[in-house]
């Protein structure tokens, strides 16, 4: 397959019929979200995954090709990537798909429903539950006190690194890692979602993107911005930005810096964001290391898992 373009290679990834789920056993509910690629609705599914009688709440990603052929293509590749990827606790898992309806230009991808929605919105809506640096009496909290109040934030950071480590081990690039693309499920579980931009790496090393698409500029590594190079190491950069979002409780990165050129120029001059006030020092160090200009100098996801878990152990 050496001569095929990456998009062609995704095209020949197989669709396994075992994932097919009958459209008439889905009862569609409210809309959970909508983006430029399509929409996500809540649904009740009867007999999903062996449980013949059980009704399970699921989320369905859908597009209509009539409205956007590129969106349909993106969802088809997302489906194939999810099938290839397999299941992991810290990834939003595939439950099935309705592809028979493709004759009408309609595709449903059925995934796990995550009750607490996306991480970015959750952080913004629950800002008051997380630490303020001062207690009720107006005293500044110590590092240890801050750490204790931030256990959820630290746990999510750890779990996202785990999910990403799994992707990296399967040689899948996420390409759009950000708080908006992490979902929160029961029991404090965080799951990496939205593989719309994901690519399987068929070659060792980097994947060079061709053509211009809408890009998540503020989450992109410097080499992705300047040379359109994407790799697991560029996902690591995005993970650093995601950590910054977590510990600012959902702020937009690089406040005040707008526009592609301005950002690239600043990054090339060596400018990086500061450690958020709420973040423990070691998290600030992880962020800085994710943003090293040389991709090879950035830590791996498994190294970051290790770093975070050792800090978690030393505080409990
Ligand atoms: N919003 C987008 N995808 C979702 C999902 N799988 N569960 C809950 N809310 C969502």
Strand arrangement in the largest pleated sheet: 1-2-3-5-4
Percent of residues in beta strands?
15-25%
The portion of residues assigned to helices is 25-40%
Shape: globular
> Based on DSSP secondary structure assignment, what is the total number of beta strands?
11
Computed Rg = 20 Å
The whole-number mean of residue pLDDT values reads: 85
Ligand roster? adenine
Low-pLDDT residue intervals, each spanning 5 or more residues: none
The string of secondary-structure elements, in order, is HEEEHEEHHHEEEEEHEHHHH
- Class from helix and strand fractions: alpha+beta
Q: What is the CA–CA distance across the termini?
A: 50 Å
Biggest β-sheet: count, sense, barrel? 5 strands, antiparallel
Number of helices: 10
EC number: 2.7.10.1
Subcellular location: Membrane
Binding site for ATP: 33-40, 61, 180
Binding site for Mg(2+): 181, 194
Give your account of this protein's structure.
Helix content is 36%, strand content 17%. It contains 10 helices and 11 strands. It has helices spanning 6-12, 69-85, 119-125, 143-149, 151-169, 222-227, 232-247, 260-268, 281-290, 301-315, and strands at 26-34, 39-46, 55-64, 94-98, 106-112, 172-173, 182-184, 190-192, 199-200, 207-208, 229-230. A hairpin with a 7-residue loop joins strand 4 and strand 5. Adenine (ADE) is lined by residues 32-33, 40, 59, 92, 111-114, 117, 183. ATP binds at residues 33-40, 61, 180.
């Amino acid at each position: 397959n050496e001569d095929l373009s990456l998009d062609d290679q995704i095209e020949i990834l197989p669709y396994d019929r075992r994932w097919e789920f009958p459209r008439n056993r889905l009862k569609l509910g409210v809309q959970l979200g909508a983006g430029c690629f399509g929409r996500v609705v809540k649904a009740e599914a009867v007999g999903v995954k062996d449980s013949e009688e059980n009704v399970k709440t699921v989320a369905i990603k859908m597009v209509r090709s009539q409205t956007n052929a590129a969106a349909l293509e993106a969802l088809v590749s997302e489906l194939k990537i999810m099938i290839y990827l397999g299941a992991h606790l810290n990834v939003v898992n595939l439950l099935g798909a309705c592809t028979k309806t493709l004759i009408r230009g309609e595709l449903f991808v059925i995934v796990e429903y995550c009750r607490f929605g996306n991480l970015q919105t959750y952080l913004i809506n629950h800002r008051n539950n997380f630490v303020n640096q001062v207690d009720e009496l107006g005293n500044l909290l110590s590092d240890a006190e801050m750490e204790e109040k931030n256990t959820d934030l630290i746990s999510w950071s750890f779990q996202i690194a785990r999910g990403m480590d799994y992707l990296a081990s399967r040689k899948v690039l996420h390409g759009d890692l950000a708080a908006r693309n992490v979902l929160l499920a029961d029991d404090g579980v965080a799951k990496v979602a939205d593989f719309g931009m994901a690519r399987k790496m068929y070659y060792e090393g980097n994947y060079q993107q061709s053509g211009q698409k809408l890009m998540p500029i503020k989450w992109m590594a410097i080499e992705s911005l300047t040379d359109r190079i994407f790799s697991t190491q560029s996902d690591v950069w995005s993970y650093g930005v995601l950590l910054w979002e977590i510990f600012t409780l959902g702020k937009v990165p690089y406040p005040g810096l707008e526009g592609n050129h301005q950002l690239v120029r600043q990054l090339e001059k060596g400018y990086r964001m500061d450690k958020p006030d709420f973040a423990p020092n070691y998290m600030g160090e992880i962020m800085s290391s994710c943003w090293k200009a040389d991709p090879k100098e950035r830590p791996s996801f498994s190294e970051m898992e290790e770093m975070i878990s050792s800090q978690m152990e030393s505080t409990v």
